[in-house]
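go over my protein:
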Amino acid sequence: MKDLDQAPLDLATMRSAVRRLLAEDAEPPSFDELETLTLQLRGHVMLLIPDVEKAAGRLPEDAVPRACALACIGESRMRLNLEPGHGLPAGIAHAQRLARSVNALCDHHENLGGKPA
């Protein structure tokens, strides 16, 4: 059960940040924009993990969707602990991995009963 003062997740905004880095026609961000995007994506992951974890916890322990969601959470937490390499290309690759985690967590959020974007 969500806290009464917690607003619902804005999956549309989260998916918009993902598209900024993962869309086929995405332009590479500048260094300053990359820093902002990376912080935004990290925040999205941190907001999504507890909701997805709570939703997965309501499923039976042997449920495949639960196992998939928990695996995604584990990988997302690991990505939060990684530091980008040096230079713009390494930073973009790091942000793209975070974007994939956000996208997957949004999918799990929706599949486990959250509202779609």
